[in-house]
Amino acid sequence: MDAPDTVPTVEPALLIATFAPSGTLRHCNEAWESVLGTTEAPWAMLPDDDKEIANSSVLEAGKGSLVTNQVVNAHTPERDEPLPVLLNFVPVHGEDDGNPRITAVTISGEVMAEPPSWMISQTQRHRMEALGRMTMGVAHDLNNLLSGLIGHIELLKEKAQRNDAPASNIQSSIQTIEKTAEDGAALIEKLQRYIREDTQKHFERVNLATLIEDCITITQPYWYNEPRRQGIEIDVERNLQDTPDVMGAASELREVFVNLILNAVQAMPDGGTLTFETYVDDASVCARVNDTGIGMSDDVQENIFEPLFTTKGEQGTGMGLSASYGIIQEHEGDIDVTSEPGEGTTFVLSFPPADESEPEPEDPPEAPVGTKNVRVLVVDDEEMVRSIVTQLLTLNDHEVDRASSGAEALSMFEKNHYDIVFTDFGMPEMTGAELAAQLHEHQPDLPIILLTGYTDTETAVDEVNDILSKPFKLEELEGAIQEFVISS
């Protein structure tokens, strides 16, 4: 297997130099110069203490003694950390007018750490460390979302068992489940953007009061249903004033408020009151979240936004508030906390208001439904994905065939005519890009849509008509059919 481009394989070079017995350098190789010094200053990259060790070892070897296993630390410009080097000093015996004497000292050196050419750059190392912390934060927030999702599914199941459950209540839970799943997808997309080094934000106008109401609904199983099952009562109070919109990513801001709500509930084991306020202060749009829980000490307050800091023992990840702090920073906002043990906790979040020139978000146009029935081939190695795409498309009376691999799709294509193909990207034996290329050899104008959860799909761009990211909605599938089959 070839080594990745970012970590090239190089053969280690031995550091070699020849000194006169008096300590004067006669010759050194290129590897020596890159690590220890030049012919004019052979020990230039060593600290003073190590220079003294090296010079005394040369003189000792110049008197005929073999000096081995001397370790010095070279400070090279390519590394932040010193580079340990193992040196061996070997006297070279010769004759002068028939009399034995030491004619030179040969020094061999071996680097005891990876040289810079073997390792990922400092920038990439820091990026990988940040990515690791970010992944932990994503996992934490995704678990929150999944917990809310499962909680609402439980509510929906209970409502479905009651014949007297109003349809509006069931519809409300379904909408909350949908919003929570969308936030989970947005969370993964955020991580993918970071991996791709695509940090450009596509912010839109967000109304904080509406967003907070959404978060209260999403977390209802936490602050209402579960506590009441345990005989605990948590009241939610609102004072949500009309404020200017802010620019941001709604899914990311919901992560922040969901985190604050869950932390507040855990801080009120005997019940209490959770209060939300929105207001304008000094030209900033603010939100205040207050609980009447156990509060925090000054030491805890100083560290709560630090990664991996937690007061919950093994049950905590220490990433919730750290991730929230990062999100607020990305939105050019601030988050402050005030708390006293036994007196509850208050978080105040402030954001710059949206520029009045920023356009209001437009509702996406609804794809025409039922204007024409088409023949569709769905290719994916996951049965669940094949099944859901088929069920969604058959709602609008499209005729759908399914294939579990590229080879099966090619076989079906030879026997049938299809108006459009939806294919997965990452499949064993044949990728979606390779399948698209082969299908286009037989039918160049066949619309092919890639369905993928991968970040790197550059190899498929030239082979497909469009790329839809998983998870997708019916309106996106219908939109592709409308654009590439019906409208064309």
pLDDT averaged residue by residue: 78
Radius of gyration: 33 Å
* Strand segment count: 17
- Under CATH, the topology of the largest domain can be stated as Heat Shock Protein 90
Report the β-strand fraction as a percent range: 15-25%
Give the tally of structural domains. 3
Low-pLDDT parts are 1-11, 115-127, 195-200
Derived structural class: alpha/beta
- Give the neighbour order of strands across the main sheet: 2-1-5-4-3
State the helicity in percent bands: 25-40%
CATH class of the largest domain: Alpha Beta
Q: CATH homologous superfamily name of the largest domain? A: Histidine kinase-like ATPase, C-terminal domain
Instruction: Please describe the biggest sheet, giving its number of strands, its sense, and whether it closes into a barrel.
Output: 5 strands, antiparallel
**How many helix segments?**
13
Note the main attributes of this structure:
alpha/beta, Beta-Lactamase, Heat Shock Protein 90, Rossmann fold, 3 domains, five-stranded antiparallel β-sheet, disordered N terminus
What do these coordinates show?
The chain has 488 residues and is α/β, with parallel strands linked by helices. The protein has three domains: 15-118, PAS domain (Beta-Lactamase, 2-Layer Sandwich), CATH 3.30.450; 123-351, Histidine kinase-like ATPase, C-terminal domain (Heat Shock Protein 90, 2-Layer Sandwich); 375-486, 3-Layer(aba) Sandwich (Rossmann fold), CATH 3.40.50.2300. 39% of the residues lie in helices and 23% in strands. The protein is built from 13 helices and 17 strands. It has a five-stranded antiparallel sheet with strand order 2-1-5-4-3. A five-stranded mixed sheet has the order 7-9-10-12-11, covered by helices on one side. Strand 15 (420-424), helix 12 and strand 16 (448-452) form a beta-alpha-beta unit. Residues 1-11, 115-127 and 195-200 have low confidence and may be disordered.
